[in-house]
Design brief:
Keywords: Membrane, Transmembrane, Transmembrane helix. This is Alkaline shock response membrane anchor protein AmaP. This protein starts with a helix and ends in a 9-residue tail after the last strand. It is 48% helix and 16% strand. The chain folds into two domains: 91 residues, no CATH class; 94 residues, Cation efflux protein, cytoplasmic domain (Alpha-Beta Plaits, 2-Layer Sandwich), CATH 3.30.70.
């Protein structure tokens, strides 16, 4: 499993646990669970009855007397956390692209490289000409040392998935392997069938 995937899962788990704990605490307070079930919360436990506030009057007075810099600092910290969360979300939506890949293996032959978009266009163009394929789109993701391909195929109503996948592996993908000197190009292929109007039988 990739380090980025592990980190994402850990962050999501921590964020989920924090949200779940806060939601249960607020729900228990709103439903007055402690009084109905005769439970005694730990000393200093926040929000033990529906009439409680997150900050007591003493805490509010103590934080309000910190000086003029306190609330701007709190707002700036919260804004920074929100910006970091937004940056993390955008980073999850963007897939890494290898950029330039050496032609003919590593090291590249006389510094010649092929761009990931150009290789994706070449795979899509060749795949679109295969029998049974109505439309094809291809993108190259991953890193330059370990590129990956994602191919979206729209088959004609008469197209056979087995034959199309065999032709894809033997043709466009093999040519892509040869062009970048790679022994393998992990590929994710997504297939769908184009809709067609029903034929009237006579």
């Amino acid at each position: 499993m990739k380090l980025r995937t592990v980190l994402n899962r850990i962050l999501l788990a921590l964020a989920g646990l924090m949200l779940l704990g806060g939601s249960l605490l607020i729900l228990a307070t709103g439903l007055d669970v402690y009084r109905h079930w005769h439970l005694t919360p730990p000393a200093g436990w926040p929000l033990t009855s529906p009439n409680d506030f997150l900050l007591s009057s003493a805490d509010q007075a103590r934080w309000s007397s910190q000086g003029w810099w306190w609330w701007p600092a709190v707002i700036a910290a919260l804004a920074l956390v929100a910006l970091l969360a937004l940056w993390w979300l955008i980073a999850q939506l963007r897939r890494p692209h290898p950029g330039g890949m050496p032609v003919g293996g590593t090291p590249p032959q006389q510094g010649v490289q092929v761009r990931d978009r150009a290789l994706g266009y070449a795979i899509a163009a060749e795949t679109g000409g295969l029998p049974g394929v109505q439309r094809a789109d291809a993108r190259i993701t991953g890193r330059s040392a370990h590129p990956q391909a994602r191919v979206d195929l729209t088959l004609t109503p008469q197209g056979s998935p087995d034959s199309v996948l065999d032709a894809l592996c033997d043709g466009p993908l093999r040519h892509a392997h040869d062009s970048i000197g790679s022994t393998g190009l992990p590929t994710e292929a997504r297939l769908r069938v184009a809709g067609h109007k029903p034929h009237r039988a006579e």
